[in-house]
Amino acid sequence: MADKPSQLILDALSRAAAEPAGVPLFGGKGAPGLFPATAPSRLAALHCKEENYLRVLRTEQRGRTAVELCAITERGMALLLNQLNPKQVLENLVRALDERQEQSAALVTAAQQTQASIEAMRATVEKALQALAESPPAHHLPPRAWHEGVLTFLHHWQTQHPMADCALPEVYEQAQRSGSYLSIGEFHDGLRQLHERQLIYLHPWTGPLYDIPQPALALMVGHELAYYVSVRK
After folding, report:
1. What CATH number has the domain bearing residue 47?
2. 122 in a structural domain
3. Which of 14, 131, 143, 199 might form a disulfide with 194, Cβ 3.0–4.6 angstroms?
4. CA gap 65, 164 in Å, rounded
5. Helices assigned H by DSSP within the chain
6. Are 37 and 26 in contact (CB under 8 A)?
7. What percent of the chain has pLDDT over 70?
């Protein structure tokens, strides 16, 4: 197997063997995958799926793109061991395991730092709420005054982007055009009302939390962190 497509397949199977939890079939901007997004690679990827070298674990929606996460099969592992030196394959797996251990330690540290940050934010919010309760009420736009404009905007959005959901920052910007101040909390309350009235769908953020462009606008719904919205038809 010395031709270029075969080398693409071996490289992809090597990456998949080191990532049993699944790797995107094709790489994207800042997100490596099993194959680069080229025409020869697409043919090689199709061959791997048809020959059962790779199997699709799940499909995730990342932004506006559906991403297939794939893992190596027993047939794919057999091909890999047959074509490469088994010792080299095992060394690659051990190296990947060491890297994951380092990443796990970094994640634990990051989680501890995040928890400390959350506690500090909670204290700040509690102080702000107390100050707000003691201050005279300000004039805010009634919740339903901007609902109709947002629903109309989402209808237009889905007409122009039939395969994509609208990000909450764009919806918030549209809601702000109502002509009066709208806080993020009021915006979230309004979205929950629209969701409970079954007028919209709220879709979760599926990528790493640190990649959220404007985390303040993300909305907790149940156990999920919503960041996209679409209108119910």
Report:
1. 1.10.10.10
2. no
3. 199
4. 8
5. 4-18, 39-50, 74-83, 86-134, 147-160, 168-176, 184-196
6. yes
7. 83
Answer whether residue 98 is part of any domain: no
Do 143 and 221 share a domain, yes or no?
yes
| CA distances from residue 72 to 1, 40, 54 in whole angstroms, order as listed | 19, 20, 5
Q: Are 146 and 189 in contact (CB under 8 A)?
A: no
- Burial pattern 12-33, b for ≥16 Cβ within 10 A else e, equals bbbbbbbbeebbbbbbeeeeeb
Provide φ and ψ at 90, rounded to 5°. -65, -40
How many domains in the chain? Answer: 2
> What are the phi and psi torsion angles at 219 (to 5°)?
-125, 125
Which spans in 135-167 are helix H?
Answer: 147-160
Place of tokens 């047959």: 82
Is the pLDDT reported for residue 204 higher than 50?
A: yes
Can you tell me the distance from the alpha carbon of 47 to that of 34, in angstroms, rounded to the nearest whole number?
Answer: 13
Local confidence band at 200 (pLDDT 50, 70, 90 cut-offs): very high
Report the amino acid identity of residue 73: T
Of the ranges 45-49, 60-64, 132-136, 145-149, the best mean pLDDT one: 45-49
Q: Which residues partner with 71 through β-bridges?
A: 55
pLDDT at residue 224 is higher than 80: yes
Q: What is the domain extent for residue 64?
A: 4-84
Q: What is the pLDDT of residue 139?
A: 45
Query: Full-prediction pTM beyond 0.70?
Result: no
Q: Is residue 104 one of the residues assigned to a domain?
A: no
